[in-house]
Amino acid sequence: MTQVIDGKLIAEDVLTGVKKATSELVATTGIIPGIAVVIVGEDPASQVYVASKGRKARECGFHSVQHTLDETTSEEDLVALVESLNADEAIHGILVQLPLPKHIDAARIIQTISPDKDVDGFNFINVGKIGTGEVETAFVPCTPAGSMIMIERIHGRDLSGLNAVVVGRSNIVGKPMANLLLAANATVTIAHSRTKDLPALCRTADILVAAVGRPQMVKGDWVKPGATVIDVGINRIPAPEKGEGKTRLVGDVDYPEAAKVAGAITPVPGGVGPMTIAMLMANTLKSAYRTAG
Ligand code: GUN
């Protein structure tokens, strides 16, 4: 029987721990974990993500602020805002929602965020720590961190002898995911749009991570029987069966097909998505604890 990896349930576990540790931190030091989420422009998907991050932060007992900036905001103004948040003692985590408008250099903004408040784990310092195996002291990007917890529930912490294939080489998911799998002793291959015979490569994977942003791209016959499939994709596709103009969320994996073959699989929605937000809260708490010494 295929095991459906319930991201909502595992995320609730993580959040229960975060809430408890937050109460302890507040009680013993008076420090309230603070997160600032910055959104530029009106991308509807980003607005939904940002609202749910704020809501979860408040549920955890955090101080949560959102900065909503106009689409036309200049790069200099955004740099100035990030610098003011870097200096703000009430803020332990800063997240600038991506993508940013085209006229803003996202790489510059990411590097402006203090590595000590970089709860997304995108800053060079944190990327470098993960790349050199210093995972414990780094802020690990939230989606790969959440995916690793799900993999751990199936395989434990040591992935020695297991083949992992990560489809997608983004800085946000694919590359850090590959580094975390490597740090856990898996044998890792990163596949991408230029990879030859992707289906055959995917069939070698004991752990298959799909992070490409293409709806239902990974088919059932790409999955090795019994493999663990982690679907990072969140894609909105038309759903005429629900009525005209309606849509539904699907992952990068063709779930009905893959679920017949996999040993364990994450659904969309209710898989990696809830884990990402939970890990953002965990990273913010970690940052607040660090300031307590
Ligand atoms: N946009 C999509 N995913 C993410 C993420 O994990 N962090 C940020 N900052 N923006 C995103």
UniProtKB/TrEMBL annotation:
<dbReference type="InterPro" id="IPR000672">
    <property type="entry name" value="THF_DH/CycHdrlase"/>
</dbReference>
<keyword id="KW-0378">Hydrolase</keyword>
<keyword id="KW-0028">Amino-acid biosynthesis</keyword>
<feature type="domain" description="Tetrahydrofolate dehydrogenase/cyclohydrolase NAD(P)-binding">
    <location>
        <begin position="141"/>
        <end position="290"/>
    </location>
</feature>
<protein>
    <recommendedName>
        <fullName>Bifunctional protein FolD</fullName>
        <ecNumber>1.5.1.5</ecNumber>
        <ecNumber>3.5.4.9</ecNumber>
    </recommendedName>
</protein>
<keyword id="KW-0554">One-carbon metabolism</keyword>
<feature type="binding site">
    <location>
        <position position="234"/>
    </location>
    <ligand>
        <name>NADP(+)</name>
    </ligand>
</feature>
<dbReference type="InterPro" id="IPR036291">
    <property type="entry name" value="NAD(P)-bd_dom_sf"/>
</dbReference>
<dbReference type="GO" id="GO:0004477">
    <property type="term" value="F:methenyltetrahydrofolate cyclohydrolase activity"/>
</dbReference>
<dbReference type="InterPro" id="IPR020630">
    <property type="entry name" value="THF_DH/CycHdrlase_cat_dom"/>
</dbReference>
<keyword id="KW-0511">Multifunctional enzyme</keyword>
<comment type="similarity">
    <text>Belongs to the tetrahydrofolate dehydrogenase/cyclohydrolase family.</text>
</comment>
<dbReference type="Pfam" id="PF00763">
    <property type="entry name" value="THF_DHG_CYH"/>
</dbReference>
<dbReference type="GO" id="GO:0035999">
    <property type="term" value="P:tetrahydrofolate interconversion"/>
</dbReference>
<keyword id="KW-0560">Oxidoreductase</keyword>
<keyword id="KW-0368">Histidine biosynthesis</keyword>
<dbReference type="GO" id="GO:0000105">
    <property type="term" value="P:L-histidine biosynthetic process"/>
</dbReference>
<dbReference type="GO" id="GO:0005829">
    <property type="term" value="C:cytosol"/>
</dbReference>
<dbReference type="Pfam" id="PF02882">
    <property type="entry name" value="THF_DHG_CYH_C"/>
</dbReference>
<comment type="function">
    <text>Catalyzes the oxidation of 5,10-methylenetetrahydrofolate to 5,10-methenyltetrahydrofolate and then the hydrolysis of 5,10-methenyltetrahydrofolate to 10-formyltetrahydrofolate.</text>
</comment>
<keyword id="KW-0658">Purine biosynthesis</keyword>
<comment type="pathway">
    <text>One-carbon metabolism; tetrahydrofolate interconversion.</text>
</comment>
<feature type="domain" description="Tetrahydrofolate dehydrogenase/cyclohydrolase catalytic">
    <location>
        <begin position="5"/>
        <end position="120"/>
    </location>
</feature>
<dbReference type="GO" id="GO:0009086">
    <property type="term" value="P:methionine biosynthetic process"/>
</dbReference>
<dbReference type="InterPro" id="IPR020631">
    <property type="entry name" value="THF_DH/CycHdrlase_NAD-bd_dom"/>
</dbReference>
<keyword id="KW-0486">Methionine biosynthesis</keyword>
<comment type="subunit">
    <text>Homodimer.</text>
</comment>
<keyword id="KW-0521">NADP</keyword>
<dbReference type="InterPro" id="IPR020867">
    <property type="entry name" value="THF_DH/CycHdrlase_CS"/>
</dbReference>
<feature type="binding site">
    <location>
        <begin position="168"/>
        <end position="170"/>
    </location>
    <ligand>
        <name>NADP(+)</name>
    </ligand>
</feature>
<dbReference type="GO" id="GO:0006164">
    <property type="term" value="P:purine nucleotide biosynthetic process"/>
</dbReference>
<dbReference type="InterPro" id="IPR046346">
    <property type="entry name" value="Aminoacid_DH-like_N_sf"/>
</dbReference>
<dbReference type="GO" id="GO:0004488">
    <property type="term" value="F:methylenetetrahydrofolate dehydrogenase (NADP+) activity"/>
</dbReference>
